[in-house]
Amino acid sequence: MSLRRSLDALYGAAGWMAAAFLVGTLVMVLVGIAGRFLHFYLPGTDAYAGYCMAAAGFLALAHTLKRGEHIRVTLILERLGARSRRWMELWALAAGILLAALFAWFSARLAWQSWTFHDISTANDATPLWLPQLSMALGTLVLLVALVDELVLEAKGLRRPHAHDKPAFNE
């Protein structure tokens, strides 16, 4: 399997995991609602809905980036020439890599510390916090890989603009 296909599979897997956690959020909310109507209480549904929502958000970062769906402010870029625009893209990707690396490092460190100290949720579910924190660490790590991938593609001149890179002019 080629490196490109492996990376695309990684981004796709992260996207599918994000989708699964989004469904998990829906299930937890529906269980909470059903519990109110049917007079039963399942402890931790609110906390688990929050964990699933956070996991969905972080795991979707790389997939969203690679599909060109991240919000971009192109006010400056659209006024630059081709060469200046390329350098600005390289600078922005390098800055993104630095920020993603810091975020990945500190989120992985947080999950490790929570595991080491046996830190648990203060909600009534008492979930070990390293479990939901893993999705944040994994999501930011995959985002870091995706940003490095984008930088390499941009540096080689192989980065393809997405069809919706042009701003939409809505009334």
Give a written overview of the molecule.
This protein is mostly helical. The chain has one domain. Helices cover 70% and strands 0% of the residues. The protein has four helices and no strands. Helix 3 runs antiparallel to helix 4 (130-156). The protein is elongated, with a radius of gyration of 20 Å. The N and C termini lie far apart (47 Å). The mean pLDDT is 90.
Notable traits:
4 helices
Q: How many alpha or pi helices?
A: 4
From the alpha-carbon coordinates, what is the Rg to the nearest angstrom?
20 Å
**How many individual β-strands?**
0
Distance between the termini: 47 Å
Element string (H = helix, E = strand): HHHH
Q: β content, as a range? A: under 5%
The chain-level mean pLDDT equals 90
How many strands, which pairing sense, and closed or not: the largest β-sheet? Answer: none
Number of domains: 1
Low-confidence stretches: none
Shape: elongated
Helix proportion range: over 70%
Q: What structural category arises from helix and sheet content?
A: mainly alpha
How is this structure best summarized?
70% of the residues lie in helices and 0% in strands. By secondary structure, the protein is mostly helical.
